[in-house]
Amino acid sequence: MNGLLVFGQSGQLARELAALAPEARLFGRTEADLTNPEGCAAAIAAARPAAVVNAAAYTAVDRAETDADAARLVNADSPAAMARACAALGIPFLHVSTDYVFDGSGEAPRAEDAPTGPLGVYGATKLAGEAAIREAGGQWAVMRTSWVFSRHGANFVKTMLRLGAERDRLTIVADQVGGPTPAADIAAAALTMIGAMRNDASKGGLYHFAGAPDVSWADFARAIFARAGLSPEVVDIPTSAYPTPARRPLNSRLDCSRIAQDFGIARPDWQAGLARVLQELETTA
Length: 285
Ligand SMILES: NC(=O)C1=CN([C@@H]2O[C@H](COP(=O)(O)OP(=O)(O)OC[C@H]3O[C@@H](n4cnc5c(N)ncnc54)[C@H](OP(=O)(O)O)[C@@H]3O)[C@@H](O)[C@H]2O)C=CC1
Ligand SMILES: Cc1cn([C@H]2C[C@H](O)[C@@H](COP(=O)(O)OP(=O)(O)O[C@H]3O[C@@H](C)C(=O)[C@@H](O)[C@H]3O)O2)c(=O)[nH]c1=O
Ligand SMILES: [Mg+2]
Description:
Blueprint: E1 4-7, H1 12-20, E2 25-27, H2 37-47, E3 51-54, H3 68-89, E4 93-98, H4 121-136, E5 140-145, E6 148-149, H5 156-166, E7 169-173, E8 177-178, E9 181-182, H6 183-199, E10 205-208, E11 215-216, H7 217-228, E12 233-237, H8 257-263, H9 270-284
Parallel strand pairs: 1-2, 1-3, 3-4, 4-5, 5-10, 6-9, 7-12
Antiparallel strand pairs: 8-11
Helix pairs in contact: 1-6, 2-3, 3-4, 5-7, 7-9
């Protein structure tokens, strides 16, 4: 897509956007530091893009607990400044949010208008970003996704490949359930949405998009090991047996029917995405 500006360069989603839209401009930290909201707005004003996707975020969930000021600047204040700069130029803005805006109670998949209740700083700052973007008043879309994995960056698949090769036995939480989502599918969905928004100024809003089917982290680990030909024993544990600085939601299931209805985008099959990512890791190793 001509004129697309992406915030983020080295991250999982940014790398997949670059692969699918090689003509896009990507801004890393040197071009735009998200701890500086006004700098992000100025970067948009100077670049005069046709559309903006924000693929940068403070994603270190545990570290955010003790680094809340930086997390808020990156996850809320800078996306808000980006949304205002896009509104001023009259161009579409797409931002990405998370299942961690929810409290994880119950077992039903959550729709976009379900009550939020973040359990930690990461989720709270992402939720604040959503609200500020809505208030900026331009043509915006926020896509909430979950459990992102790809060949790039830090993610659960790559952690499991490392630990599974080192250890005979792993204890993995089995009471957190959600949809693992290949970053490549998020990139494709984001480009579809931005294209539709450019064609129709009435398009936009809040959308859920996650891989299917929903699964526990323990069962996701088992699937990774089965496909990768590793055979550590995976022991189910409750979240209470895996203490971390940030609390995480137990129920991360996202109801993704709205994005299917409005944009024709179906939930991606994470097993297929996992097979692709393992193949990519093998050929680049
Ligand atoms: N990862 C996941 O499991 C999930 C992610 N999401 C959301 O999806 C989106 C994409 O996430 P993902 O690609 O996985 O994230 P990554 O952690 O892979 O990448 C984050 C990117 O943000 C950049 N970044 C962080 N801080 C700054 C800063 N101060 N200035 C400029 N750039 C900065 C990083 O740059 P650098 O490499 O230099 O640090 C990196 O390129 C985010 O909005 C995230 O909240 C939603 C659900 C799940
Ligand atoms: C490494 C390991 C993790 N776990 C657990 C911890 C955690 O509950 C779960 C997943 O670990 P992670 O470190 O990938 O979790 P985390 O970094 O919290 O993942 C989240 O990142 C943010 C950015 C999001 O937006 C979320 O959608 C989600 O993907 O697995 C084990 O139970 N055993 C282990 O050996
Ligand atoms: Mg993590």
